[in-house]
Amino acid sequence: MFAPEVVEEISILIRVDFRSKTSRMATHMSRCRTWCRLQRFGIAAYRKYSTGGGYPNVSLSTPLPGIPKPVFASVDGQEKCETKITTLENGLKVASQNKFGQFCTVGILINSGSRHEAKYPSGIGHFLEKLAFSSTAQYGSKDEILLTLEKHGGICDCQTSRDTTMYAVSAEVKGLDTVVSLLSDAVLQPRLLDEEVEMIRMAVRFELEDLNMRPDPEPLLTEMIHAAAYRGNTVGLPRFCPAENVDKIDKAVLHSYLRNYYCPERMVLAGVGIEHEQLVDCARKHLLDVKPVWGASLATNVDLSVAQYTGGIVKMEKDMSDVSLGPTPIPELTHIMIGLESCSFLEEDFIPFAVLNMMMGGGGSFSAGGPGKGMFTRLYLNVLNRHHWMYNATSYHHSYEDSGLLCIHASADPRQVREMVEIITREFIQMGGSAGEMELERAKTQLKSMLMMNLESRPVIFEDVGRQVLSTGKRKLPHELCDLISSVTASDIKRVTTKMLRSKPAVAALGDLTELPTYEHIQAALSSKDGRLPRIYRLFR
Amino acid sequence: MAASVCRVGSTVGRVLAKTRSPILLSLRRGQASVSYAQSLVGAPETQVSALDNGLRIASEDTGHATCTVGVWISAGSRYENEKNNGAGFFLEHMAFKGTKKHPQTALEQQVESMGAHLSAYTSREHTAFYMKTLTKDLPKAVELLSDVVQSCSLNEADIEQQRSVVLREMEEVEGNLQEVCLDLLHTAAYQGTPLGQSVLGPSSNARNLTRQDLVDYISSHYKAPRMVLAAAGGVNHDELVGMAKSHFSGLSFQYEGDAVPVLSPCRFTGSEIRMRDDALPLAHIAIAVEGASVSSPDIVPLMVANAIVGSYDLTYGGGKHLSSRLARLAVEENLCHSFQAFHSAYSDTGLMGIHFVSDKHHIDDMMHWTQNAWMNLCTTVTDSDVVRAQNALKASLIGQLNGTTPICDDIGRHILNYGRRIPLAEWSARIDAVTPRMVRDICSKYIYDKCPAMVAIGPIEQLPDYNRMRSGMYWLRF
């Protein structure tokens, strides 16, 4: 690619030893040539890098020579592609969404989670999450799995939640066959050796300790509010393994659970970034007619119970005076979460509830995080900006296939718990009032943009495809969801709020609870017109 | 004129970059081959243009319905001196408090109603203001950004109010021991030089910075040739250039009195800082040597070396089947709660090191094995180690570009650091060109028998003396 005389010049330059006196003539010659080169190509060409000869010494500011010009992809509206879904003969669904790129995300989602553990010791889901991708029939250890994946630049991960278990692998597209075979192995044929289970027991104990130690109590509060709202059933069951069950769970218990819940009808193989036909072929090869390691699944004992919303209160007295892990002390706070029943994500009212959640917004009192993160939401404008002693007020929306929960988390100094509860109940009642035009538009736009921004990333698209196909059998594309969001009106919000306020409240409280009002008072406040707590007369303080 | 040199400099730089220097052919003589079949990269091209005032505009059209657009500036705490250290960070806080055209509430409401996210960050050498929004709102976003960067109003009243916010944020950061540790590492390693200053600045400056200081900072650093307007998402490059022409043409490119700020070299000093506090449950320790600068060709083998050492956290379920040797030892001997290898690269220097968190009885062992890992990098790195690290590094480089904001950030930083966006094919080729011998030689050059900089915070009684650790940086075996 270079002229022959230029090539010759370089070879002389490299062969010449500048220090040798005998080659003074050659040195002079090459210095002349170097000077010519300097004139032609400028200073950057002459600079010698410190690595010396032999190694590539091209600064990153200069393009590396010898690489053919890459052919770049051009975007041609592939994002509007439909999600293709096929159902195999054994009931397994295969869903895929095409997206350009060298990497793809493929995984198996299973309709199994902590809500199905009613007849088993709680915590199986937690164990399965940590045991994922350990030794299987084909791969002797996690090391072998990671080594195989590394050849394709891949990573693997498992996540369980209250109603879904997700095994996912992100790797190069050309490794699709290996990836699907690995997934099938990891899901259907894990060995669950005793030493692995023992190691996971330690990891689970460490995680439980970590949960109790950290200053941010949000996971604990989520557990408590679910236990309060759905007392003793389905989604109210604990997601993290309770300490007393850590030793009770072993291979036999796990197998009896897996036999009932890991059946093809309850599974979806989802993929993003690959062709549908390829994925279906791999699924037929690796997931059809595979005998799982716990024997043929008979699925006799499947828990099909519907979540029963009960409402109620769960309290945990805990000393929060010294939770900081660093040298700066964190003030002592009491955390409360008050929730009401919303609706499942299969119903039409789900979208108005999502818009309502966005409208309430909220966050930490220190800072919203900059413009755009909800500084004009109700919880900021009405609560945090007016009452500077509140540390936190955030609204959350949890939704499952048969029920849902809209809750508000607030935290403040223990002496102001009563005022804090009253402010939150007043906010709930005001939700039933009419929403401002601008406020509603803003919430709808923010929800749409949050949806689109989250769907930029491939793992999120994968989870979206998988979960939708698992629960409904089809997938609503993002622009369809945006249209549904745009059609929400103020009367929709009013209607869903009125329905919500009729349900019994669920309350979770953590910390110093001496000033906490009783559950009956909170219930009375939420059914009253203005949301105020009933007056109590304190004769003895 | 110096100012025009500054402007022309970037153009010359670009011309030189395009020319292929014949010395670079020495690659062919090297051990690794760089032949590479023409391949479909799977990512769109990054297009770069420039305005007359020197502002560079770079964008990548990925076809998403959302986009991220922002301004990346070559300004940071390294450009500050003792008196105005923290001005950049303070300015980041003031940026969203209103401009001449949009007072604070109007700005916030506009952003919120668009459903956009407006953010900023300041580091030692870069400052960025960026906005995530839907693609159809791109023109409005560029207008708001141009306003925020060029005509920040800087009210006296707002400045006073932000002082307490900045002080409170400093207090919160003090609680994050990992950040404190890595910050102190810079203070130790680059002591007495501008790189040693923290981005947040001392609290006395937060209390005393005046409006004039902030105005001076803007006028000496926010100049068009040092800025890049980067965008990623469903962005059309020509449209973006048009928008930039209408909003950013007024950006100045001349310095007052032609005083172009020049970065002085920052010397690295092997040193240590110990903050013993037996009341803390865990000790945070970081040890580093001087590494490669951001555009140095040595940085790729060093990144591979760091991928060999890897990272670990107690909550990883993998146990003793992790690929990094240090991680396996950490699990088997229960040495630490977490560790990570890092490389912070600046324009003419860098910090390459390992940071770990452990309890007070295992510090000595963990430090021994950490330095052992470094010595292994210099002496006994094997083919399989390098192949694994190459795969992991390539996967992480590509995997990080997941979404319009990371891609936009990548574009902005690449243009500021290298003057161009390095395509993934080139990263792949550079990483593939790394051989075990290269890793050993280059690591020896940077690590072997060098004085490290070290920081330790917490219950660190067990940490050996500095001279012991200095002797851990070489082996007497050969």
Set down the secondary structure blueprint.
The complex is a heterodimer of chains A (541) and B (478).
Chain A: H1 4-15, H2 24-41, H3 43-46, E1 84-87, E2 93-97, E3 103-110, H4 124-131, H5 142-151, E4 155-160, E5 165-172, H6 176-188, H7 194-213, H8 218-229, H9 251-261, E6 267-272, H10 276-287, E7 312-317, E8 334-341, H11 350-360, E9 362-364, H12 378-384, E10 392-399, E11 404-412, H13 417-431, H14 437-454, H15 458-472, H16 478-486, H17 490-501, E12 506-511, H18 519-527
Parallel strand pairs in A: 2-6, 7-12
Antiparallel strand pairs in A: 1-2, 3-5, 3-6, 4-5, 8-11, 8-12, 9-10, 10-11
Helix pairs in contact in A: 4-7, 6-10, 11-14, 11-17, 13-18, 14-16
Chain B: H1 2-18, E1 46-50, E2 56-61, E3 66-73, H2 87-95, H3 104-114, E4 117-122, E5 127-134, H4 138-150, H5 156-174, H6 177-189, H7 203-208, H8 211-221, E6 227-233, H9 237-248, E7 272-276, E8 283-290, H10 299-309, E9 311-313, H11 325-332, E10 338-345, E11 350-358, H12 363-379, H13 383-400, H14 404-418, H15 424-432, H16 436-446, E12 453-458, H17 466-471
Parallel strand pairs in B: 2-6, 7-12
Antiparallel strand pairs in B: 1-2, 3-5, 3-6, 4-5, 8-11, 8-12, 9-10, 10-11
Helix pairs in contact in B: 4-9, 10-13, 10-16, 11-12, 12-16, 13-15
Write a brief caption for the model:
The complex is a heterodimer of chains A (541) and B (478). Chain A has 541 residues and is α+β, with helices and mostly antiparallel strands.
